[in-house]
Amino acid sequence: MESIMIYVPIIMAVVGLLFMAVKRSWVLKQDAGDGKMKEISDYIYEGALAFLKAEYKLLTIFVIVASLALAGITFLPGATTHLLIVVAFILGAFFSALAGNMGMKIATKTNVRTTQAARTSLPQALKVSFGGGTVMGLGVAGLAVLGLTTFFIFFFHYFMGGVWTNSADMTIVLETLAGFSLGAESIALFARVGGGIYTKAADVGADLVGKVEAGIPEDDPRNPATIADNVGDNVGDVAGMGADLFGSYVATVLAAMVLGNYVLRDIIIANPDFTDIFGGIGPILLPMAIAGFGILFSIVGTLLVRIKDNNAKEAQVQGALNMGNWVSIILVAISCYFLVQYMLPKTMIMEFYGEEPKDISSMRVFYATIVGLIVGGVISSVTEYYTGLGKKPILAIVQKSSTGAGTNIIAGLATGMISTFPTVLLFAGAIWSSYAFAGFYGVALAASAMMATTAMQLAIDAFGPISDNAGGIAEMSELPKEVRTRTDILDSVGNTTAATGKGFAIASAALTSLALFAAYVTFTGIDGINIFKAPVLAMLFVGGMIPVVFSALAMNSVGKAAMDMVYEVRRQFREIPGIMEGTGKPEYGKCVEISTKAALREMMLPGVLTIGFPIAIVLLGMLIYPDNNQLVAEMLGGYMAGVTVSGVLWAVFQNNAGGAWDNAKKSFEAGVMINGEMTYKGSDAHKAAVTGDTVGDPFKDTSGPSMNILIKLTCLIGLVIAPILGGHADGHETIVEKTETVVVEQPAVVGQEKSEEITVDRQKDSEGNVKATVVISTKADNNEIKTEEKTFEGTDAEVNSQIEAFKKARK
Amino acid sequence: MESIMIYVPIIMAVVGLLFMAVKRSWVLKQDAGDGKMKEISDYIYEGALAFLKAEYKLLTIFVIVASLALAGITFLPGATTHLLIVVAFILGAFFSALAGNMGMKIATKTNVRTTQAARTSLPQALKVSFGGGTVMGLGVAGLAVLGLTTFFIFFFHYFMGGVWTNSADMTIVLETLAGFSLGAESIALFARVGGGIYTKAADVGADLVGKVEAGIPEDDPRNPATIADNVGDNVGDVAGMGADLFGSYVATVLAAMVLGNYVLRDIIIANPDFTDIFGGIGPILLPMAIAGFGILFSIVGTLLVRIKDNNAKEAQVQGALNMGNWVSIILVAISCYFLVQYMLPKTMIMEFYGEEPKDISSMRVFYATIVGLIVGGVISSVTEYYTGLGKKPILAIVQKSSTGAGTNIIAGLATGMISTFPTVLLFAGAIWSSYAFAGFYGVALAASAMMATTAMQLAIDAFGPISDNAGGIAEMSELPKEVRTRTDILDSVGNTTAATGKGFAIASAALTSLALFAAYVTFTGIDGINIFKAPVLAMLFVGGMIPVVFSALAMNSVGKAAMDMVYEVRRQFREIPGIMEGTGKPEYGKCVEISTKAALREMMLPGVLTIGFPIAIVLLGMLIYPDNNQLVAEMLGGYMAGVTVSGVLWAVFQNNAGGAWDNAKKSFEAGVMINGEMTYKGSDAHKAAVTGDTVGDPFKDTSGPSMNILIKLTCLIGLVIAPILGGHADGHETIVEKTETVVVEQPAVVGQEKSEEITVDRQKDSEGNVKATVVISTKADNNEIKTEEKTFEGTDAEVNSQIEAFKKARK
């Protein structure tokens, strides 16, 4: 029996997309301003599209190559992966690109409309800019849920006829579905890294020649790199972030489904007649349902984001955003309670590694989702503490700026480093507690619950760069000062939400990676990952190194690309007559082209590193240990763990150090008290702070945020490779059932009762046929152990009933 | 039978110490120069002694508190640790302090003599400064081998009567010996961190006010902080480094002995009658023997370090050092060959985790030692590439300096980060290959071989700061320019050896930690460390965070202490009349006092973090899992792995970034070509490079080098806590012996032969009584398994012979 519940997430996704369409047409109907504004906005729009077009051209080649490689994998001996994974991969990549593209288009259309709205009032400007963000958020979330659910339903019908058969078949469904996630995450990697390099190359290049050398203000239309700079905000902060969260969203739900499948397996082993009103797959559908309802509650949240007072300050705007965010989080929490109660059996038997299987009530799964929601909330506060204006760490950096750039840099680095302390403790606590509540299924559902408000998070995130752009357009169009003041308020709030958004992104990436990691271990069927084996430990080291080297590559890329930009801007200042007087027209397109080319060229090496290393490890491992795929699987697992642990640390370090430097610099705008003197922009201390910000730029906008994708993609690649490593392909699993103590006769000495232990060892071939061997050892008081062994064959259900019958017969 | 071999390392150590005494009296006999030189040298000597005195006073309190805690541990139920561990701990601390003290005394005596020698010739100056280094190196190595061997012999007699009984007794000997290592490493932590903070606070403070504000040159006698700066070189680079390598040396040899004990256990299980000409403990004595011979060959190496040409340049001086170093390394390699052949059985049975026990020939152990020696050599080249003058990375940083401090900093950070790539691959390769050759015993012996030339390494390391000081004295005493030119050549070589020495230190720390980690796993008797268990994974995260936070604390401490220094120097410039004209005398003592106080105050928090966290994890773990010490042991193991992986990464990153910035700045002294123009000191690019160097200073001299000790100490604390976690205390170990296939009757179907598997499960109580249960399962072709089980009690040897008899009787 197929349940209607399987279609519910699709309905929610469609509702989200419809709401998005309505919002989109409302935004587009807003006044886009007059001549100059429109002209600039068109430049930005075209520059952004040109970049995406060039990027997609390159990525098409990548997708073709990767598809061929994936197809190759499915033909490897022993691999259970189905060729359909290639289709899923291509469509995952396509959906991800579509989501990024859609978000960027609306963002580049909204910016000028926000500027225009800011000419009337601040509430209207917020309404327009946040409207654009909402379109982006709902678009990404809607496409993610729609794509993932549709593919799941398709594969579920294709491989299982739409009816639950056994967990091995479902594993094939989910393995194939992993292709969708892999496609999405691969595109996300390039979008994040490419976008990050683009935006910082343009930003740093524009600043170095414009602000520092020529002494003209930021966003001055005479600066040839200024359009590239504004394009960068869109390709980096909007398209990059969109692709990132699209990838996270899909990966999280997928991981939870994979783990749900294993929960189901254990339920069925304990109770072969198990079924529920969802066709027996409630635990697998639950994460999709949470995601679907999350879209609805995000819509509710977005409706609450508004202000009335035209003289509102940052605090009110931030308050409005917080209100919307918290309401959607609380609604998700409530929905989790009902969904968990409705969709899961009252109690489940779960296996905790190295312990006896335990009875877990569905309430514990609910607690795990609450853990995820709490982490999502707390991480924002932690990030805000370390990067927020007026907070202690920022004030300390400001003070240190008075003794020069060196001490400013040291203080910023130290702040970023120290910020790993509460963050890692929070993550460690979340892992531990959600696992304690409901095993790795709990960890995955914690992540799912956290990600359920993705649409809302993304709306808040995207509104920042839109407002930033709106301010830029106001400046370049030489609009009255009050317009810029209004957009500046929005921009300033946007800076804070950018930092907290990064905290949210890394928290979700950390939990998602762990869930994927758990799914990987279960897919390969290894006995955990033992770092006491030297090859595994060696790979833990190698994995730990990757995020560091990746970050360095990204930073160097920004440096190189920025230098290209510097030379071009200098050339234009030198060669175009009248450019500084405003009579000569800068060649904006040249700068856009340079950023585009540099970003595409430089995103290759980090990409190759990310994708190549896990594959290299598997090949090397198989070469050295040709008969020990399990060890190779453990080595890859060690590598994944290394990348995750180190990646989380370096993400937090880089994001927060970068954010802290940025706001330390911003503090000088309103003036700061240093050694009893008010110090402002232009002072030596401010110059030192500007240096810090330059260092922080690639940290917080290029290398730092890329870590999220690096760790998720690494774990996804592992998951896709897993079936080759044979694990569940040879289908060998041993289940130790409960030891029963049967007192056959009153023993002479207490403690010498006759006891028996039942072990079931089952192997499954690729067609789902099960061969189970039951071993019953009986220990008597005379130090003698007797064992009986019997083998059964058939489908999972058949074998289970035979075993039950056999056990009953013995009694 | 007790072998004479056990005393050989002591003899070598005494030879080393005697040679040291001769060298020392030669150095002290050298001319210490005239009035002003002597006066300055006395200031430095007294300042250094004052710091050590204050430090030791504080550390005495620490040692008392830690001793009480350790004593408490021995009384915990189930702990096998003997109270004597407290004595070992105290003496380990004492020896470490003694080694640091001795080294620093000779260094502060040699500096002025080097200055005086430099007035005659460069070869003589090298002879004196390297002579001082040699005294330091031999003193540290001699004391380490002497202390460790003496304690081993004492405990071996105390617990085992000087005769091999069984591996459980030997475990108690080595557990107690671990106290010596713990004491040494604890002192090293404070010496390194305190010294690092001291030296950088003085350096940065002196530079900021002296060079930058007042515009007087480095080491100018008018600068009140100049003596503190020179004292800092001694307490940081000499005493800190000495204590660090003393700790590494002891820990490495200890870890190898612990693993040797387990090698021996497996040998004896396979062959209960095993003995050798070393009283049956060859594998345990081997690492001590390698260390002993290493002292001799280091002496040979030091004798080769000399130059003849008074007009020699850096290259010749470096060449002389390299010659001595390589000769001692090659001699150690040769001695390893003979020692391995002589002291180990031709083949040993070793257990590789998760695999069948293997026959390992002693030649494979030799190969493992070669791996260690190669790593020691290659790491120097790698470090030199990333930090050496004239190399590509440095040139790139120099170029980036032209666009300001921001780009210089980004380039330096990126260089440090990229440098983790070859370094980690080298370490991972070393772990993997030395393990593949001879298991974790191989890893430990690789580390031991590498550390065998510690005396030579330390001589090379210590000669740097001595020459640096000599130059300072020349400057402050206003000696002729050629003197400073000569000491500058030595100083410049010293900068390179300082960087490569740090590479050596982290390589040794990495291998030592892994060996300790392996010893820990074996001590606790856990089944490896499975990061698929969420609490273990959570601790891996927490462990990974610690080095980052530790580094941040150290950096902040330097910042705070430097500010104190700045205020004091400013005050003296303001208040002491005639100070700038050279008529008023600066109060050097006040600055020394400030550095001393700040260093002692600031070293506390990092120390508490390092020591407190492992203990907190164990307590928390025991609270949450009161009945599952094994899980708690795995959690602590996960933490140790996290600290090690992350610590190695951050050490390499910080050391190399710091070294790179330093030499990028130095490049400007000879002039560099930037964009086609020669650029010198005083240019804007140079100023940017100076900013980079300021950031690099705490990186390379405070937080970076502390990582070594952090990871070693963490693993040692784990090792000392191990017995509480019950592992071998409940003495439960299961040995799966080889499966024999006995064809009882010709089977009807091939593959259905009757086979049997023998499992021996042994438990040992704290008095060494063994209870072993032998289970023999026989599988017949009718799917039926029969098992026989029999239990034996007695000593290890008795039980072994009973089992043999039982097995023979069955046949």
TrEMBL record, chains A, B:
Keyword set includes Chloroplast: no
Q: What class of enzyme is it?
A: translocase
Catalysed reactions listed for this entry: Na(+)(in) + diphosphate + H2O = Na(+)(out) + 2 phosphate + H(+)
Q: Which InterPro entries match?
A: PPase-energised_H-pump
Residues carrying the site annotation Determinant of potassium dependence: A498
Q: What does the record say about activity regulation?
A: Requires K(+) for maximal activity.
Q: How does it sit in the membrane?
A: Multi-pass membrane protein
MF annotations from Gene Ontology: inorganic diphosphate phosphatase activity
Mark the transmembrane ranges: 6-22, 58-76, 82-100, 135-160, 172-191, 246-264, 284-305, 326-344, 364-387, 408-432, 438-460, 504-523, 535-555, 604-625, 631-653
User: Where mainly located?
Assistant: membrane
Q: Pfam families of this UniProt entry?
A: H_PPase
Domain of life of the source: Bacteria
The EC designation for this entry is: 7.2.3.1
Q: Where in the cell is it found?
A: Cell membrane; Endomembrane system
For this UniProt record, the keywords arranged alphabetically read as follows: Cell membrane, Hydrolase, Ion transport, Magnesium, Membrane, Potassium, Sodium, Sodium transport, Translocase, Transmembrane, Transmembrane helix, Transport
So which cofactors does this thing need? Answer: Mg(2+)
Q: Which family does this protein fall into? A: Belongs to the H(+)-translocating pyrophosphatase (TC 3.A.10) family. K(+)-stimulated subfamily.
Its annotated function is as follows: Sodium pump that utilizes the energy of pyrophosphate hydrolysis as the driving force for Na(+) movement across the membrane.
- Which NCBIfam families does this one have? PRK00733.2-4, PRK00733.3-5, V_PPase
Q: How does it assemble?
A: Homodimer.
**Protein name per Swiss-Prot or TrEMBL:** Putative K(+)-stimulated pyrophosphate-energized sodium pump
**Species assigned in the record:** Flavobacterium arundinis
